[in-house]
Amino acid sequence: MNDKQMKKVLLISDSILSSDPRLLNQKAALSTDFTIHTLGIGSIDNRSISHSINSIFRKYKFHLNWNPVFRRPMTFFLGVYKSVIRSNRKKKFSNNFEFRYWQYVNLRYLKKIKNLDYDLVWANDIEVLPIAVFLCSEKTKLVFDAHEYFPMEQADSDWINKHSEYRKYLFDTHKSAIDKMITVSESISKLFFENFSITPEVILNAKPYFECSIKQPVAENIHLVHHGFALPGRNLEQIIELFNLLDSRFFLHFYLKDSAFNTLRSLKNLARGNSRIVFHKPVKTTEIIQTISQHDVGVYLMKNIGLNEENALPNKLFECIQARLMLIYPTLIEIRKIVENYNIGIVSDAENLTNLASKINALTPDDILAFKKNTELAAKDLCAENELEKMRKIANDVLL
Fold first, then answer.
1. pLDDT tens across 67-110, in order?
2. pLDDT reported for residue 359
3. Average pLDDT for residues 187-206, to the nearest whole number?
4. H, E, C per residue of 192-256
């Protein structure tokens, strides 16, 4: 089918598209049957037609890396300019939530994109839902990927007071335009039904099936691994505390991407003097599974601090499964289901490190190998290929 005959899909996300796993999966699922356009930060590849979301939300951050001599007057000028826009826009909206959302939106640029007349708009996250609805013509169908439970994205009271009701308003105002909604787990889907009377379909953050030979654990060299971003709240310090309670046959490997919070430096200071803790350079997203498959056990001690954490199914869980690692993960609803259903590791309350350390110290190489072998079935069942097929079906069904 040539491009003129193929229907057009617009994928929207306020994220860096080339490194956003959801966008990459959506593009992989739909690019065979549809012409793909994107609206986000950067481009997803050289073949898709890209539009800049920064040009829509007018974030006014283009000058932040300038020399201070020029940055300061530009910051002042932009402050005055934004106040003029705010004053003019406020007269057009009936309530503060509407004004809060649309105050800086570049409607002229948005209308140009709307004129491209898409068959399907696929929007990711609540913050882009209103512009996604705006971009839909009468014939356009809308798929909304909520990802997690957005009214409670963060658990602290300040965030909830500032954002929760606002996000509920955005959803209540625009949900009637949604033809199909998606989220990441069964438990979160139930939350949306209980609170909004809508049942999203579940699309897992699964990874492509990886053909992998299972590494045989060696009795005196059991290698634990954790990968991801070095961010506050990830409970990474507790992984080191746990490790310090383990026998000398265990080794711990970190593959961490640094952040602006100096978390990585703090972790290195905490681990100083322990030669069995190794900090490796971070690897590309496409190399994570191959890299961590050289180890034995994937460990993550995420705390249950809110609804999204309680019902989480993080990317790294699926990466560890494809790497055929035994798992040591927290006792959270959706994680526990997978780990126990496939018998691929230990789920434990991260608050009791002594008890968890005892369980780990009791493991034999044969125990670890048995868990690792069980991940083969999980890797086949919980792979991206199955989720991509669900996405294709959603797109085709809404366009019937």
1. 777 777 877 777 776 666 656 655 555 568 888 888 878 889 99
2. 96
3. 96
4. HHHHHCCCCEECCCCECCCCCCCCCCECCEEEEEEEEECCCCCCHHHHHHHHCCCCCCEEEEEEE
Give the start-to-end residue ranges of the domains of the chain.
7-58+105-206+385-398, 222-382
**What CATH superfamily is the domain 7-58+105-206+385-398?**
Glycogen Phosphorylase B; (3.40.50.2000)
pLDDT in tens, 265-296: 999 999 999 999 999 999 998 899 999 999 99
Helix (H) or strand (E) holding 131: helix 129-134
The domain defined by 222-382 carries CATH number 3.30.540.10 = no
b/e string for 102-128 if b means 16 or more Cβ within 10 A?
ebebeeeebeebbeeebbbbbbbbbbb
Helices (H), 281-332: 288-292, 307-310, 315-322
d(CA 46, CA 34): 16
Quick one: which H or E segment has residue 278? strand 277-280
Query: How far, rounded to the nearest angstrom, does the alpha carbon of residue 46 sit from its chain's CA centroid?
Result: 23
Domain pair 7-58+105-206+385-398 / 222-382, same fold: yes
Q: pLDDT tens digit string along 331-376?
A: 999 999 999 999 999 998 877 899 999 999 999 999 999 999 999 9
CA distances, 283 to each of 102, 163, 287, 300 (Å)? 39, 34, 6, 18
Buried-state track 129-154, b at ≥16 Cβ within 10 A, e below 16: bbbbbbbbeeebbbbbbbbbbbbbbb
The residues that bridge with 121 in the sheet, in sequence order, are 10, 142
Question: Distance (Å, rounded) from C-alpha 33 to C-alpha 190?
Answer: 31
For 343-385, give the DSSP string. Answer: T-EEEE-TT-HHHHHHHHHT--HHHHHHHHHHHHHHHHHTBHH
- Which residues fall within 8 angstroms of residue 231, CB to CB, at 6 or more apart? 259, 261, 263
Q: Tokens 């300040």 identify what position?
A: 158
Determine the pLDDT at residue 94: 52
pTM (two decimals)? 0.85
Model pLDDT, residue 90 = 55
